[in-house]
Structures are given as C-alpha cells and as structure tokens.
Amino acid sequence: MFDYTIETSNTMEETIEKLKATLMEEKFGVLWEFDIQAKLQEKGLEFNEPYKVLEVCNPHEAKRVLDKNKMVGYFLPCKIVVYTDQGKTKIGMPKPSALIQNVNDEELNEIALDIEKRLMSAIDKSI
C-alpha cells in the first residue's frame, strides 16, 4: 500500500494539536496547514467535509536526502492529511518508502523507511 491511514475518536482540532506535538518529538515541524474545505468554498465550490493537509519537514533529513538526489525534492515536504469521512476523523499520509522507490537508490530507501517509521509513530501517538 502506498499510504498509512488510521482512524481516531478525537475531533480534527484535537487530532491536529496532538499531531503537531508528537511531530515535534520526532523533530518534524509543520510548515503549512492547508484547509482544503475552506479554499474550495472560497472558490464557490461546495465541499462540506473538513479536510486539512499538513506539510511537515525535518530540515536535517531534507538536506540529507537532497544532498543524495535532488529529485527527492519532488516528494518534499512530507504530507499528513487529517479529514473526516462518514463522521470519523482520519489521519493519513503517503508512505515515504513508496514514493522514494521511484528514484532506485537503496540508501535513500533506508532513509525513507526511517522517516516513515518516525512519522507513523507520531501519527499513532496522536490518536
């Protein structure tokens, strides 16, 4: 599977606040929080489910992978999505290991797996 997605009984707001704190424990910061629902509604489009994309980054890890292969920047920053689906709050992300496979570099695969493990840990701790 290309993604890691889990469900929580917390509200979106609670989930995002907890997620920000657990990401910090793993040395990741939230660069940007994109509210897709608000943006679509601003453009006159009906979209009634809350849906937020958090772009997260660990600068040291970003530099490490970019030093190895500049094309990895196509996958940066990492994205974590928090949304509601049928009344349930979900948290998900594309797995870095699935994305990085496209550059065919074993060392980068190992780095991606480590980053993935840390992001999944932060997500798990936020539920």
TrEMBL record:
InterPro entries from the UniProt entry: DUF302, TT1751-like_sf, UCP021774
Domain DUF302: 34-96
Source domain of life: Bacteria
UniProt cross-references to PANTHER family, sorted A to Z: SLR5037 PROTEIN (PTHR38342:SF1)
Protein known as: DUF302 domain-containing protein
